[in-house]
Task: structure prediction
Amino acid sequence: MALLTEQDNITAVGKIRTVRSRNFALTVPALLLLVVFFILPVVALLLRSVMEPELGLDNYRALLGSTTYLKIFLNTFSVSALVTVVTLAIGFPVAWALAIMPSRWASIVFAILLLSMWTNLLTRTYAWMVLLQRTGVINKTLMGLGLISEPLPLVNNLVGVTIGMTYIMLPFIILPLYGVIRKIDPAILQAAALCGATRWQALTRILIPLATPGMVSGALMVFVMSLGYFVTPALLGGTANMMLAELIAQFVQSLVNWGMGGAAALVLLVVTLTLYAVQLRLFGTARMEGR
Amino acid sequence: MLLNFDRLGGWKWILIGITGLTAAFLILPIVFIAALSFGSSQWLIFPPPAWTLKWYEAFFADPRWLEAAGTSFSIAAMVTVLSVLIGLVASFGLVRGRFIGKEGLRALFLTPMILPVVVLAVALYAFFLRIGLNGTVTGFVIAHLVVALPFSILSITNALEGFDKSIEDAAVLCGASPLEAKLRITLPSISHGLFSAAVFSFLTSWDEVVLAIFMASPTLQTLPVKIWSTLRQDLTPVIAAASTLLIVVTIALMLLVALLRKGLKS
Result:
């Protein structure tokens, strides 16, 4: 290549600079997409909650003043809380084991985790519908073992939703918690042992407190994701334990009541964004995914 | 002590037990569905009385299943291309740009990930009713693009931040045009980011149910919508066959990603 002259260099540097100053324009296509097909439709939906059928807060009064809807809110919160507690109780020992077990075993468990995470959501829910039904494998096995004489009602109720949601949420708590436990220095626990701490003391006074930020962050994420879940509760839950996302869909699809639908959406949105802000405040970063 | 596997004593077996049971809990439903799709029982009895391929025959004989799979694939393919292109361009702006509100913009681009999908689905459904995009391929692609784009932007900005900009500048100083330098130096260097953006975008669209339920019409539905509407009627083993095919696609994509990661390392 020929040597560049001083003048060539200056124009080249100039080229780099102009490209930099133009960079905002590059984000415009993505920004347009989000404004037109995300922000504006959501804002329009929320506005309908105070404009339909007439201007005012009537929809919110109806939503928050009725015991039917309050029961749905309560149910949404309690199912999400239950799922969070169960995933945490299973997720902590699993993440702990993964962090210290021989890497060959751990990689098998990781492969299973990823496979279950990547498998189609409906496929996973369908699998649980089949397994948990009256004539399903689980009831058949329990009856075969003589543990029960009548099939247990495992679907279309709280048990079904909890099992199905726990199944989906487990990877979301195990993976981040694994990262947190991996970073704990084993020497701290060795020091505790040298000072005479029992295993139990080391667990409750050192390991759990050190893993707490990871547990809180993971639990918040699972809780928020569960609040807005639609598919799994709709298929595995009963009509008696409807959740908020289903209520929103029902207002819009079956009742064609956009005002109430918008109001319920706002409630879900406010709770989600508040918890998300808490997460950001406490931990700086957050990654969530709601379906 | 507690972080040393060999010195856990009896606790080691408790941890192994819980982990083993959890792994079984996570893998068993997938294994059962795959096994039941070859079972002859209409009521999905396990173990099946006999083995058969009739559910796969039923799947491939029904044009509605195939059509739905085709629709899913073409929508996911369009979403992938658009998501990677728009995400790539936006990532350049976010990583290289110097403008006010850049961090806010980046956070804004990721919000579709945290918003409950049902809210977006209802909002877009209302909007599309007005402009006549419900039940159209365009409507599906736009809806899925909104939720796929954050994954693209996340993967590509990560890759771009790990790339040393001075290499691209060097190419420009050596006489390449800025565009040429980007196409021939930068893009190949961030190809792993582009690849994961493509895989995530594809899977996001391919697996998406909630938006699809709202966007679908009797004449246009994706595979998840077809599974959803069939599921609401009965648990026919044809769904098990369709699910097993989806699982095979998932495993194939996972292996592809794993192989490419290995290829990149060596």
User: Anything to note?
Assistant: The mean pLDDT of chain B is 91. Chain B touches chain A through 92 residues (CB under 8 Å). The longest helix of chain B spans residues 63-96.
